[in-house]
Amino acid sequence: xxxxxxxxxxxxxxxxxxxxxxxxxxxxxxxxxxxxxxxxxxxxxxxxxxxxxxxxxxxxxxxxxxxxxxxxxxxxxxxxxxxxxxxxxxxxxxxxxxxxxxxxxxxxxxxxxxxxxxxxxxxxxxxxxxxxxxxxxxxxxxxxxxxxxxxxxxxxxxxxxxxxxxxxxxxxxxxxxxxxxxxxxxxxxxxxxxxxxxxxxxxxxxxxxxxxxxxxxxxxxxxxxxxxxxxxxxxxxxxxxxxxxxxxxxxxxxxxxxxxxxxxxxxxxxxxxxxxxxxxxxxxxxxxxxxxxxxxxxxxxxxxxxxxxxxxxxxxxxxxxxxxxxxxxxxxxxxxxxxxxxxxxxxxxxxxxxxxxxxxxxxxxxxxxxxxxxxxxxxxxxxxxxxxxxxxxxxxxxxxxxxxxxxxxxxxxxxxxxxxxxxxxxxxxxxxxxxxxxxxxxxxxxxxxxxxxxxxxxxxxxxxxxxxxxxxxxxxxxxxxxxxxxxxxxxxxxxxxxxxxxxxxxxxxxxxxxxxxxxxxxxxxxxxxxxxxxxxxxxxxxxxxxxxxxxxxxxxxxxxxxxxxxxxxxxxxxxxxxxxxxxxxxxxxxxxxxxxxxxxxxxxxxxxxxxxxxxxxxxxxxxxxxxxxxxxxxxxxxxxxxxxxxxxxxxxxxxxxxxxxxxxxxxxxxxxxxxxxxxxxxxxxxxxxxxxxxxxxxxxxxxxxxxxxxxxxxxxxxxxxxxxxxxxxxxxxxxxxxxxxxxxxxxxxxxxxxxxxxxxxxxxxxxxxxxxxxxxxxxxxxxxxxxxxxxxxxxxxxxxxxxxxxxxxxxxxxxxxxxxxxxxxxxxxxxxxxxxxxxxxxxxxxxxxxxxxxxxxxxxxxxxxxxxxxxxxxxxxxxxxxxxxxxxxxxx
Length: 892
Prior knowledge:
This protein is of the alpha+beta class. 53% of the residues lie in helices and 15% in strands.
């Protein structure tokens, strides 16, 4: 039977070491009021049992009251705990600031170290985000596909398409919702609204090109099918920057007439800012009509010059679209056995992957390098903070002895670490902003044109999170060490003058060895890339680019419709430029050396191909007779072009030594006759000379076979090369004046020096090397600092031992060897681990090497030597202090 006198609020409670639980406190309070009421009723003469029943009745819903009181008390306690927590945090921050100010040199070095590690990673992340993560300037860009022809040999997977292939892709690939044609290269135009022409780059695009990309003009409209019809009024769509700069941002520009290459065209649209086409940045867009190519049987299936961009249909994956495109390529080979190129097939790539290209590999290498620097930073600061924490062992021991909780000590030390990392993060963001500004200048021709390379809020937030994570990472080991401090042993050790333990010494050594290991991998990678670039840049080019000015111009067919007219114009321009003081030679070509992209197939007269797939292809350029003397390319056999090799005369050709050796190994190339292209009825061409090889692909180990046609017979030249005894840059003005004297509406494009063009070809390898070398130098510095800190703290910890050894008769040489042996052990361990790490690191950079083995012993030995030298310099100070210990002072 239930006892009615039992306290209804009593319940089992757990032990409460500091304060009662909310439930117990509420029970006690309610029980107190209940008893007060019962005693009051009993004092009035009410029976105790009845008094308790009346008191309980007055309380009403006891459980509800108790539950409400518990919730209120728990909420009050949570608020109190929050206030206490923020008060503790504020106190920790104030103490951390005072601790940082008490050791200004340590704090400054820590902040700078964090800033360098975080800044490097933030800058690289900014590049990665701009290139690989940010949205492309198109709607639903992940659904966009670029279609290419692909060599079956695997040597090239980005070949242009024929007009027939373009039509077949648009009509027969069901995976594509829409497809559009464009010309993959930019075209040079002279744009003008008055008498002064302005050189600019233009793109050629089909009717639904902008619709496929999902881009709407901010003014006017884009191209329609009517704009592509023969006889349609000429129109242009302007880029946003041209509209703003050349038309002053006129909102009424739609319908306005401007001139392109002297031809009046109507502005029909203005594109949004930031738009970049698949072929790169251009200033304006003009319609591309391929109907004439489709009417020509040879050009329709045998002339590859077009690109296709398409949008995937709903629910279609990139993989399934790729399979359908490849199947179409196979079907076209069967349907057009005489026209289709048996050496190629069709392939599809995601547009982002296509635009990023080879930059992805370089970004992975840079990201890994920056991450290694950050790891070295963490290890360096962990060791430094650990040493600083050991120096505060007496302070921490006293606090523990006075009752401070060990968790409170851990939080205090982590707060100090995070405070330093936050300040380092702020400085790191500033360094990252400067680094990205530098990369924008260095990487202009390397990263895709759509990449902004900006320090946006996400990058800033990422940098701060990285800084805070770094602060926590390098603060954990010292904080845990401090939490395990034994007050009695720490105070006793302090009284004896000791400052460390064997376990902590091993931890510091491990951190230093880890820094060395990571540094070896990074420095070895930098040396491998540096040696590769040195071999690449010192490989003979086959021509002399120094002292040569180069520019391009456009001889418009509307103004110079015949071959004789174009030849007469270039002859007059040649004569006028040669009259400029300092000019020693002038030449014209269809492309710059080291930048040829045109390849032509050919057959040797008298030789029968087993199949069309056996037709060889060589690089081809049209050049003037003075081309070889201007570039100082030597004649090996036969003769060069003369004024007699003009239109109407027998067609002749000069070939490179590599072409002669490959296809005429017996040495009878001069006098041989060939046919260019797949048409067996094309005219025979006589080879009249063999010249020295020119490296067209600067990253290739050997020169490719090349063929040269006479510009008097093949007049498609638009590049000017001028050799001078003075500064080539100074020729830009005089050459433009001479060109304007012949044709005021014809501007120069891309005026530069040939050496600058060559250097630009190496930029893709030079910029990553510079960045990785910078990371390697920073890692080397941090590793040296880590070794110094490790040995210096070891010397400080064992100074009493060294004093006793000296007092007992040990020589200072033995003390020096003892320090070197202990420090050298960890350095050697780091070098061994680093050698293993190199084998992993070279997997990332294997594709970026030229002429160097990935495990090149010279580069690896050089990295180890650099680390040994840096470590030796770092050891000098601690060793010197160890041998200069005064035994009497230390023992006293």
